[in-house]
Amino acid sequence: MASMAGMDPEAYAMTDTTDLFEIIRTTRSMRRLKPDPVPPALLARVLEAGTCAASGGNQQNWRFLVIRDPAIKAAAGAYYTRGWHEGVGPRYRAGGSAPGTSPERFERMLAAAEHLADHIHEAPAWIVPCLSGPRGSGASIYPAVQNMLLAARALGLGATLTTLYLIHEKECEAAMGIPEGFHSYAILPIGFPRGKFGPVRRAPLAEVVYDDAWGRAWS
Ligand SMILES: Cc1cc2nc3c(=O)[nH]c(=O)nc-3n(C[C@H](O)[C@H](O)[C@H](O)COP(=O)(O)O)c2cc1C
């Protein structure tokens, strides 16, 4: 497949595709979502992709809470909104832009993140991936999360991995009705995207991959 470097993002505006590498390269955070409901059959495909992921010892100590109830999304989403405005948003605004992206693009990302912070409760569906036991690294749930993000993208659905609600972890988990003995590791707001899918922006391999010796750039 041709490299995406330098290609017009419009070239990647298709809503669904089955080419795995195309999906990987265009699974961006889609933070502006339409309010239209997500057909349950599509949600089921996303969730099934999640449960195909690996977990330590194949223990599958996961549960996936799907939240579509507007009252629950409003109550829990308020903690997300607070977390953004009270801490995360100002912190990102005070820092530099991310590697592999321009200041303008980074500013657009922050604007989209702020939009999500103010509208997360309007996303038609949330998937909240949870694990049993004390809060841990999430190594046995984030593979499922990534599978679900890729599956959503493949189906033309937009989603974002969000964790900033964890600033108000206890209150937000209580609002979502997560019982004792389980912890949530993300909220994935999912819906049909308002914008178009496009390539992710990342630093090139030469900057992040080393060849046999630490610091020797991969070529
Ligand atoms: C561990 C983790 C936590 C994240 N939490 C949030 C979040 O709370 N809110 C948000 O808008 N994006 C969140 N993101 C999304 C990242 O900001 C996003 O993936 C990154 O800026 C790259 O942009 P892209 O996904 O569009 O390529 C999170 C991503 C990861 C991996």
Descriptive overview:
- This protein has a single domain, classed as NADH Oxidase, CATH 3.40.109.10.
- The protein is built from seven helices and five strands; from the N terminus they run ααβααβαβαββα.
- It has helices at 20-25, 40-51, 70-94, 103-119, 142-154, 169-176, 205-208, and strands at 62-67, 125-132, 158-159, 182-184, 188-191.
- Strands 1, 2, 3, 4 and 5 form a five-stranded antiparallel β-sheet that branches.
- Flavin mononucleotide binds at residues 28-29, 31, 109, 113, 116, 160-164, 200.
Write the layout of secondary structure elements.
Layout: H1 20-25, H2 40-51, E1 62-67, H3 70-94, H4 103-119, E2 125-132, H5 142-154, E3 158-159, H6 169-176, E4 182-184, E5 188-191, H7 205-208
Antiparallel strand pairs: 1-2, 2-4, 2-5, 3-5
Flavin mononucleotide (FMN) is lined by residues 28-29, 31, 109, 113, 116, 160-164, 200.
Q: Can you give keywords for this protein?
A:
219 residues, alpha+beta, NADH Oxidase, five-stranded antiparallel β-sheet, 5 strands, disordered N terminus, binds flavin mononucleotide
How many H/I helices?
7
**Distance linking N and C termini:** 20 Å
Helical content band: 25-40%
CATH architecture verdict: 3-Layer(aba) Sandwich
H and E order: HHEHHEHEHEEH
**Strand-residue proportion:** 5-15%
CATH class membership: Alpha Beta
Largest sheet: 5 strands, antiparallel
Bulk shape: globular
Average predicted local confidence, pLDDT: 92
Write down the CATH topology.
NADH Oxidase
Work out the count of structural domains. Answer: 1
Secondary-structure-derived class: alpha+beta
CATH superfamily: NADH Oxidase
Total beta strands: 5
* Cofactors and ligands: flavin mononucleotide
